[in-house]
Design goal:
mainly alpha; two-stranded antiparallel ribbon
Length: 291
């Protein structure tokens, strides 16, 4: 935040307090000539840094011992031979600071989808703020131009089209199975057992929705929920969308069967087609939108 010289005040970027200009240190690199954080926050930041800063002895201990041909890993603090470290021309001794085991574990942690999804779930607000900031927009633009010039963007678009086609085919297959379950259950309850058409349709809906949720989550949209809360929210959104389409289907059945006396099974088939299309749109845009 820039200083307001008219009021003689400035907001600290760390503690977000509005303080007098005398509470900020000088910094010629800033537009207003003052540090972005107040003196109290700057002092706390320096103290925290000194607590975590390694001493010179610790730094020298992690350097390679060329006579013995060994080096201590800066992460796990274990001593290994030099062939357990990657070469690094920018380091003092010509070898990386971490051993290959620690580097491999760090890479695997970054590639772990469950860890990534959990981190995204916990930092949704920070990610949104970053994307909306000027730096975030500039970084997104640079990444887009780089991917476009290297040909990775075209490969990604081709892969995305294949995934969308596969998703649509799977949804069609499982949608037809859901359709058969719904029609079969309705026929059993309404035609065979003689239950009222609205009650029979509601019972058939329960069986169809349970089957649809399991197949959509596991095979069609392949959404992973890192926390129980996220899983509950996803399930609630899915059942809410299906309940909305149930109301539409019940309305169609009530109007065309109960009031106008159209053939029961033909109206049910038509209503089911409308519901399948609406269910796909709701699932794609609202329930499983992170895919």
């Amino acid at each position: 935040m820039k200083a307001n010289f008219e009021t003689g005040l400035k907001i600290c970027s760390k503690c977000r307090r509005e303080l007098p200009l005398s509470s900020f240190g000088k910094d010629i690199h800033q537009p207003d000539g003052l540090e972005y954080s107040c003196k109290e926050c700057s002092l706390k930041r320096r103290r925290d840094y000194l607590k975590t800063k390694r001493t010179k002895e610790e730094i020298f201990q992690t350097r390679a011992n060329l006579e013995k041909g060994t080096k201590i890993c800066s992460k796990c603090r274990r001593e290994f031979s030099l062939d357990h470290f990657h070469k690094c021309k920018n380091s003092y001794d010509g070898f990386g600071g971490q051993c290959i085991f620690c580097e491999r574990a760090y890479r695997e942690l970054g590639r772990n989808k469950e860890t990534q999804e959990k981190w995204k779930e916990e930092n949704k607000e920070k990610i949104r703020e970053w994307r909306l900031s000027e730096r975030g927009k500039a970084a997104s633009r640079r990444a887009y131009l780089k991917a476009k010039s290297s040909g990775r963007l075209q490969k990604w678009e081709k892969k995305k089209r294949k995934e969308d086609l596969k998703e649509l085919v799977l949804y069609t297959v499982f949608g037809n199975m859901t359709f058969i379950i719904s029609i079969g259950a309705y026929a059993v309850f309404n035609v065979a057992l003689g239950i009222n058409e609205l009650i029979a349709n509601a019972l058939a809906w329960v069986f169809a929705v349970l089957f649809s949720y399991m197949t959509n989550e596991k095979w069609v949209f392949r959404v992973s929920t890192p926390t129980k809360t996220a899983a509950f929210v996803q399930m609630f959104a899915f059942f809410s969308g299906r309940f909305f389409t149930l109301i539409i289907e019940e309305t169609i059945i009530f109007v065309f069967i109960t009031m106008l006396s159209y053939p029961s099974m033909w109206v049910k088939l038509t209503a089911q087609v409308v519901v399948v299309v609406l269910n796909y749109i709701i699932s794609k845009l609202f329930v499983f939108k992170n895919q």
